[in-house]
């Protein structure tokens, strides 16, 4: 176990800077998820921590020791990749033992570690099988076993579940979390899947185009997204965004359809007439039950999902989606007026894209 400190790390490939000064202090035993869309630099950041790529500037320290110039093998880390490539001609046992043998570890210690890891991963009965005689999930467990036997200070995972089918992914996700609770090895897990991130991570690093857009617990990121990018990326269906204007009294927002919504507490620290972007999640809207204020939705399309109903439409010219509990029979082309609790409203600055604290 070790803490990992990433300080102002940048990475350039040729003239193109891919990672723009990322900083993050990862605590000993913490499970950190690096989350972001394809191409935002997640794998690159992980490879920098692993030492598979050299950083351009900044500093990475593992367990208090700066590792910038250390080879991957000297960093005491183990990495699980998406393509976990087991040796097909070797048994499960030999696949797990191989890395230790080439490090010339005594056979008795190798045997102890392989059997201990197999026990944890429920592979004890499968040690004599070849990879082709295993299911996808079992192979993924062998790949993790190969890392566990090394007893590393840090585990790095790069989308290790993306080759598995949906059901197996959910199961493996829970197994990885359980394993973490057992072993408490500092882990850094890369994914573009927000559900995976929310369920696995103690904290998330949400990446946007080579920078950390927000670092926080899953709930912090969901409840108080730091900017428009994080707000739109976390949550499904995605948060709605409406252009709005602060009313004369500073305590209400005027929407383009002529209706308005109340702001929580003392309102927004802004002059009247300031333009803002109002963010509201589909699950926080409900029919307004005859209140005077609200958000007017012109319905285009209704999806009955059983447990809930998704209603899609427009508020003025802007798209709006609402998630209502249970089955709701709402006519296409109906107009419904919606309410969201003031404390569930998010405000963003249209210029800086940053969250405006209320
Ligand atoms: N060796 C390299 N040389 C040049 N550019 C690279 C290199 N490796 C990665 N890149 C570029 O860096 C950017 C980030 O790539 P990276 O693989 O880190 O993204 P990612 O977030 O892991 O994406 P994905 O979810 O698709 O795996 C991409 O634009 C990619 O083309
Ligand atoms: Mg990647």
Question: Could you characterize what this model shows?
Answer:
- The chain is α+β, with helices and mostly antiparallel strands and about 350 residues long.
- It folds into two domains: about 5-230, 3-Layer(aba) Sandwich (Rossmann fold); about 240-355, OB fold (Dihydrolipoamide Acetyltransferase, E2P), CATH 2.40.50.140.
- The chain contains eight helices and 21 strands.
- The protein has helices at about 40-50, 90-100, 105-120, 135-150, 165-185, 195-200, 220-225, 230-235; strands at about 5-15, 15-25, 30-35, 55-60, 65, 75-80, 155-160, 185-190, 205-210, 210-215, 240-245, 250-255, 260, 275-280, 285, 295-305, 310-315, 320-325, 335-340, 345-350, 355.
- The chain has a six-stranded mixed beta sheet with strand order 6-7-8-3-9-10, sandwiched between helices. A six-stranded antiparallel beta sheet has the order 13-12-11-14-20-21. Strands 15-19-16-17-18 form a five-stranded antiparallel beta sheet, with no helix packed on it.
- β1 and β2 form a beta hairpin.
- The longest helix is centred in the middle third of the chain and has 18 residues, at about 165-185.
- It is elongated.
- The two termini are about 40 Å apart.
- The model has no long low-confidence stretch (mean pLDDT about 90).
- Adenosine-5'-triphosphate (ATP) binds near residues 39 and 44.
């Amino acid at each position: 176990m070790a803490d990992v400190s990433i300080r102002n790390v940048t990475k350039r490939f040729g003239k193109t800077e891919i990672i723009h000064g990322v900083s993050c202090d990862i605590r000993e035993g913490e499970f950190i998820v690096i989350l972001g869309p394809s191409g935002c630099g997640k794998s690159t950041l992980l490879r920098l921590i692993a030492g598979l790529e050299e950083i351009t500037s900044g500093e990475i320290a593992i367990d208090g020791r700066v590792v910038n110039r250390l080879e991957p093998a000297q960093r005491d880390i183990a990495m699980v990749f998406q393509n976990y490539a087991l040796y097909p001609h070797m048994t499960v046992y030999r696949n797990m033992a191989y890395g230790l043998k080439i490090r010339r570890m005594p056979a008795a210690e190798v045997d102890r570690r392989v059997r201990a890891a197999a026990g944890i991963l429920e592979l004890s009965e499968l040690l004599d099988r070849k990879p082709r005689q295993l299911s996808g999930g079992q192979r993924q467990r062998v790949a993790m076993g190969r890392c566990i036997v090394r007893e590393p200070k840090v585990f790095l995972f790069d989308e290790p579940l993306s080759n598995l089918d949906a059901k197996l992914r959910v199961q493996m996700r829970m197994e990885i979390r359980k394993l973490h609770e057992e072993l408490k090895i500092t882990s850094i897990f890369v994914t573009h899947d927000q559900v995976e991130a929310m369920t696995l991570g103690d904290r998330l690093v949400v990446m946007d185009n080579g920078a950390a857009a927000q670092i926080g617990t899953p709930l912090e990121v969901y409840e108080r997204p730091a900017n428009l990018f994080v707000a739109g990326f976390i949550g499904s269906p995605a948060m709605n965004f409406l252009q709005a204007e602060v009313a004369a009294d500073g305590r209400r927002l005027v929407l383009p359809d002529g209706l308005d919504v109340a702001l929580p507490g003392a309102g927004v620290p802004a002059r009247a007439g300031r333009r803002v972007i109002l963010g509201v999640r589909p699950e926080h809207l409900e029919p307004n039950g005859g209140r005077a204020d609200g958000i007017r939705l012109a319905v285009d399309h209704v999806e009955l999902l059983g447990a809930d109903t998704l209603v899609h439409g427009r508020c003025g010219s802007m798209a709006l989606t609402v998630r209502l509990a249970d089955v709701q029979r709402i006519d296409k082309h109906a107009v419904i007026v919606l309410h969201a609790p003031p404390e569930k409203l998010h405000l963003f600055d249209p210029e800086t894209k940053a969250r405006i604290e209320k």
